[in-house]
What we know:
With 111 residues, the protein is an alpha+beta fold. It is 46% helix and 20% strand.
Amino acid sequence: MRRSDDFSDTLRGGVRGTSGTMIVHLNANLTEGDPLVGFAVSRAVGNSVGRHRVQRRLRHLMRDVVGQLEPGTRVVVRALPAAAGATSAELDADLRGALGRARRRRDGRRR
């Protein structure tokens, strides 16, 4: 995901799942096609090197999860400052947990 409008639509219109190191925003069925994923890593996470390291790790972990998303889904992963000191295993568990919470909230809205 690269366009500002895509990020805004996902943040405003989606549901949120949280964990210790990140917040996942999920907005399903906005468009047809492959799922889109974007990352937001603020300066609170660390300096430029640290932010890019966190983003690369999250991108790598998301590759395993993106195949499980429904077509047309948009996801924004916002890293919190705790992500800078987390291990890859902790980030993986937090990503899957936050995404699962967001899905449950979304499914609850559909009923």
